Task: structure prediction
Amino acid sequence: MKTTLLIVVASALLAAASLLAVPDSDQRVFELRTYHTPPGKMTALHARFRDHSIALLERHGMKVVGFWVPTDANQGSADTLVYVLAHKNRAAADASWAAFRADPEWVKLKADFEKDGSLTTKVEPVFMSPTDYSPMK
Result:
């Protein structure tokens, strides 16, 4: 009886552990980035991405999935930009961001666009792994 109970408990623990598996380090990851802007800076932020930053992100190995703004005022429609990037894996993401931030073209571009103050008040990055049932992996 004790042996049977032990086998049942061990099986249950193994099943639970498989549901909490750590994502594979070679698995593609997505990065959700939310930018909050000071009043009056959203147009400049859009221009920086539209005219310059997208090409720089892609040059450094980041795949741009899309950009969005909230539709409701109480959710930040006037001062919030949300976008998603895809990366080969988390290590690639870290390497891409390091190269991007050190790129002399980015350093100059950021300085030019922010000579009258930062375009963001807060940047919130979130890395995400696709679920087994996600249509996008």
In short: The chain has one domain: 27-128. The two ends are 45 Å apart (CA to CA). The beta strands are 29-36, 63-68, 80-87, 122-128.
